[in-house]
Each structure stands twice: as structure tokens, then as C-alpha cells.
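Appendix B, record 7
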Amino acid sequence: MFKKLFFIVLIAAFSGVCLKAQNLRYSSDGKTLAANWEIFYGRSNNVSQFILFDAETGKIKMSFNSNGHSLNDSMFNFTPGNQNLMIADRSSISVLKMTADNQIEVEDFENQFGNYDKNLVAVAPSADGKIYYKVYSDELIGYDILTKKALPEEAKKPSAEGGEFLAFDENANLLVEYENKALEQSLIVHNLATKKSNKIKLPYPFDKEKKGRFDVQFSHNADRMAIRYETNEEKSQISVWDLKTGTSVAVFSIRSLKEKNADDFYQIEHFALSPDVKKLAVKIDDRYEDDLSNLLFLWDIATKKETLTAAKKYSVESFADDFTFSPDSKKLAVSSQIIL
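C-alpha cells (predicted):
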């Protein structure tokens, strides 16, 4: 299986700097790969660019300066049509448009300065391309692409009531909210099209002093999702859930090699669910000083068999800072950090 998986590694050379691709995302047709590229030099100097690559050749198709977007909080997504890029941070949103002569036009939307202190969770365009959404930890805001203004209050979708929004699917339809009540942890999946919500009770104990951390990713057609569950006791696992039945179909974890205790596991830093839900890519936390921190785990979800790839073949300082599957699930784009 692994022979069929190709890696696109984003590496550059620039003397005396730290190079890092912060985010990776494929266009829906798989022809373009976008990255938020950061270059750090000196104590406080940095350059941040959004770069679009040709996914087959690796050549740069377009680059754009961040134009004031927060370096550590910016998110982006492709608009319908695969040519334009929607960029947002906690307070602003812009759309980069490629013209016929490969120039860039920038459309700025109405700023939401009141939301600057909120945590930004996701950005996504609606399937019909009429609305761009921003998901905060406690609120979902839609922007009309014609007026470039936030939708009026009565047109807004669900707001988290005591919970926390964790994820939004790529079709801007399913919104996941984390909730804990009466010491029970649950995920509520809001369907914006049907305006119905389903609750999934999670089989994890709740401890007020040792709260768990959850991250969620959807499959391409949003019928399954992968949940990373992590505690501050270095317990970490990923479960894959069937949203139609509300049941877990597979659980994955990486047992610690340094400890004899059967309950000790490595904490998972990054993960990616393939669009066809056949593969799961996982990277453990870089704090572990052993060979596993330079490996990328690839699981076959049906058989639970795994394969590995090592960082040293790419000659980088920090391996797999981020990674994402192509829409056809046959490629995995991997970003790595270089310190020169």
C-alpha cells in the first residue's frame, strides 16, 4: 500500500533562518496545494506568505504576502472552482483571486473586531459558493460573498450553549460541538441543512481536574469522522466513528516503548483521515526524544495494519509539522521545518 503513496515535501533553503509551512490544503480537484509559509529570521523578524503550488510539478503558481493576517491564527480554504483562496484570522477575512494573466486581486470582507479574542476553529465556503463561514469556539458567522458583510443576526446558524465548537466539514454542512454535562462527555453534530442535531456519547471518563482535549476531522462525504482524544496524563488515541450509526468502528493508539505500564501511550501531535476513510496518518509529539518522533505512522483502518516512513530521508530538522491527503487519497502532502 505504501508504495502507492507519494509524498510532497515542502522544503526551501534560506541561510540563517527557520522555515516552516504552517498549514497545508489541497484544492477539491487535487491539482493545487496551498501552504501558509513562514520564514523566521533574527529575534523578532518574520515573513509570512500564502503559496499555491502545482500539486504535480511542485512549481509555485501564486504567492501572496499575509497582509496583516495573524501568523499563528490564520486559516484558509479554497473557494468553489479551485482557483481562489479564502484567508481568515480571528478578526478579518479576505479572498485572493487569480486573474487570467496570473495576477492577484484581493477582496476584503467586513471585519469582526469584536471576535478578535475568540478562538478561530475553521473557515469554509458553502457548496453553492454564496456564503463563506467562519467558525469560532462558540459561534458560527456567515458572510454574504456579494455584499462582503456578515449575515444579519437572524440568519446566523447555531451558537454553542455552554459547549465548544470543534470542527466544520468541507461542505459547510456539519458542525461539531463538544459538551460535558453531568460528568458525561458528548459530541453534538449539527446538520445545518436539515437543522437537526445528533448527540454522540463518548466513552471517556470526565475529570474536572484533568480535562481531555478533543480534535475532529471529517471524511470527504462527511459520513465518518476521526476524533483525537488526549489527556494531560499522556493518554492519547484516535477513534473513527460512523456518523450514521453513532458508533466507533476503529480505535488507534501508539504504545510507549519506554514504559512497561500497558496504559502508557505516546501523545499524538498531528493526524489526518483520508477522504476515502481507508487510511489514517499519525505523528507523535516531538517532545519524545527517540526514533519514533521522526516517523509518520500510516494505518489501514480496515485491517489496522501500519506502515512507517522516516524523516531522515528528507534531511530536515523537524518532520511532519503538518500533512494532508489529496482528494483521491493516493497522495499525502507533508510539510517539514528547517533550521539553517
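Remarks on this record: The chain is about 0% helix and 50% strand. The longest strand covers residues 32-41.
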